[in-house]
Amino acid sequence: MVSENPKLKVQIDPARLSRIIDAAVLISSEIVNFHFNALSNSDLTQTPMPANAGTFGFAGPTLSADQRLTIHQNWILAKAFQELLRAVRHSLEVAHVYTALLTKTHRISSSSTLDDFLAPFRKKAAGKRFPELLDAVNEQLNPKINFSKAYVSLQIARNCLEHGAGIVSKRETRGGDALTLTFPHLKIFYLRDGQEIDVVAGETIDAGDGRPEVDIYRRLDVRSRTIGVGERISISHADFNEICFACHYLGQQLSSNLPRPKIEPIAQ
User: Fold this and answer.
1) Which strands sit side by side in the sheet containing 178-192, from one edge to the other?
2) 143 preceded by cis ω (within 30°)?
3) Distances in whole angstroms, Cα of residue 250 to Cα of each of 63, 84, 179, 186
4) What is the CA angle 211-213-218, rounded to 5?
């Protein structure tokens, strides 16, 4: 006979979903901004000397300043993209577990621990490919989160930066002549005659209807970029900051739109 465990308490904290992503956003954006700024002010014509200079050294090809800059930027961006991808994936796996717990009634053996109880939910979430994972979570969200294409593009860019020196090959294009990447972007806009007008720093917001106040909207969107075979994926730290901000917004959407548990009143 299996009895219900009255001592097992599961606390669900929706804000954790945004904290998972924000931790990666803060770390990766700080590192990218710091090192990109440092590189722009450094003499890259010379090989940096090791801390124990004179004890040993490494021989290698002679690099120009541009080549050295590219190598450093590729390495930093590949690691930063990896951190963002890991955090987004982790947050969605946790969201998948939360939605499974919140949308059904569950019972557990009195001898089971919390880890025993959560293990099958975590395993199911970890076993899904990213589009399937996002689709499963989106079933419980309104509005839906559109991030699958952006996630795949970030993966492709990371792999190309890490394994292909950032140069697009037929492997990335799957035999085509060019690669189209869709990077995540937080679109901030207002409406003018039914058309979406992007909010741009320094430009006057005018809805054209004479009203003194204008409604501002935002949503996750993408910016597309096409790179030909043999060309280099070029991503500035401004581009990366925009990607980070979109990931931050994704975390906020997950946290705020997650289904809340139904609380039944106690009969008097």
Assistant:
1) 195-198, 178-192, 217-228
2) yes
3) 40, 12, 25, 9
4) 125
> What confidence score (pLDDT) does residue 2 get?
41
Higher pLDDT, 124 or 61: 124
pLDDT in tens, 17-55: 999 999 999 999 999 999 999 999 998 888 877 766 666
User: With 70 as the cut, is the pLDDT of residue 262 above it?
Assistant: no
DSSP E strand boundaries for the chain: 178-192, 195-198, 217-228
Residue whose structure tokens are 């979430």: 125
- C-alpha to C-alpha distance for 10 and 236, rounded to whole angstroms: 43
CA gap 108, 117 in Å, rounded: 7
The residue among 158, 200, 165, 204 whose CA lies nearest residue 183 is 158
Q: How many other CB atoms sit within 10 Å of the CB of residue 247?
A: 28
Mean pLDDT rounded to a whole number for the chain: 87
- Is it the case that residue 268 has pLDDT exceeding 80? no
Tell me which of 108-112, 179-183, 210-214 is least confident. Answer: 108-112
Give the end-to-end CA distance of the chain in Å, rounded to a whole number: 32
Give the pair of three-digit tokens for residue 150: 């952006």
- The C-alpha atoms of residue 142 and residue 137 are separated, in whole angstroms, by 10
Gyration radius from the chain CA atoms = 24
With a cut of 50, say whether residue 166 has pLDDT above it. yes
d(C-alpha 202, C-alpha 204), whole Å? 7
Helix H or strand E encompassing 247: helix 237-257
